[in-house]
């Protein structure tokens, strides 16, 4: 697939440059991939977790009733294994705790593997070495069947294998049996690691290509910026993340001044060319992985920054306004100046329980209306802690103009 990088989002383009050799995407893409990867594997993992919890409850209860289980083992099963399996199961259902799911699943599989290792070693000591097959099967499951990412699977499988090898040495198993077990553990881990790596690499490649296709499908055909549908979906996602991390969000609305008059005077082809050039200026503001530029109306654009615009070390909204004017696109019908200009409304908010996404967008809309009222070709900034929002006056005013 050959896709021009300038038509991809900063996140997707950066990920394509980095490649997949480390089996890890950039941060935001990685979070989305892990959520999707978990969704694929959860139908087979949840029953396994439930079965394991049920088995521990039954075996512990029977062991206590028959006095065949030690107090240490019973306490470990009840106080460690059951809460761990329950926490893993709960995390699999809660989207906001997906970041805990892989570590919890890895620890759960490790603990079960340690129990199987203990049973297998004790069985071998009593003359039933065929229990070793259970540890081989479990290591295969860790690598390929429970949906662990490669590095989590590697840590878990190696820890189980090392524990079993330590048991062979600690209880002085025979040389022949130890060599055979060591060879089998090395073989099963080598095959499992190769298959797991290839499977995850293929899955990640498919996911990256899917992101590229979706990225292109969400583009505005004229300007190459994201379209309104993509903007709405992105705003909901970034608002949740910003609220979770208590990170500041900057929403900029940019509107070309007197654009209807420009279209009427110079024609739609000239209008389309002007939109493309203005879009290029706005796109330059989306330089960080989570920044986002979109065309959300005929001549209206949005630029969303994850974090304050001041992190750029300069006045980004003012710079965008200035560079639009510096395009020097003649506009004889403009009462603002001889060239095409733009007004910018900026809302700077920190999402919390008392503020909504709609309120933040309306704040930027109010700032844009104020910039228009005060003469156009200017920037108005509103911060959530300083302003009272009179929502949507500019948008409503413009809709009335178009209706007339």
Key features of this structure:
404 residues, alpha+beta, Alpha-Beta Plaits, five-stranded mixed β-sheet, 5 strands, disordered C terminus
In terms of topology, how is this protein built?
Layout: H1 10-18, H2 27-66, H3 71-93, H4 98-125, H5 132-144, H6 150-170, H7 175-217, H8 228-245, E1 249-256, H9 259-266, H10 268-283, E2 292-295, E3 300-306, H11 316-326, E4 342-349, H12 357-373, E5 379-383, H13 393-403
Parallel strand pairs: 4-5
Antiparallel strand pairs: 1-3, 1-4, 2-3
Helix pairs in contact: 2-3, 2-4, 3-4, 4-5, 4-6, 5-6, 5-7, 6-7, 9-10
Any overview of this molecule?
This protein has 404 residues and is of the alpha+beta class. The protein folds into 2 domains: 5-215, no CATH class; 223-403, Reverse transcriptase/Diguanylate cyclase domain (Alpha-Beta Plaits), CATH 3.30.70. Helix content is 64%, strand content 8%. It has 13 helices and 5 strands. It has helices spanning 10-18, 27-66, 71-93, 98-125, 132-144, 150-170, 175-217, 228-245, 259-266, 268-283, 316-326, 357-373, 393-403; strands at residues 249-256, 292-295, 300-306, 342-349, 379-383. The chain has a 5-stranded mixed beta sheet, sandwiched between helices. A hairpin with a 4-residue loop joins strand 2 and strand 3. Mean pLDDT is 86; it is low at 386-392 and 396-404.
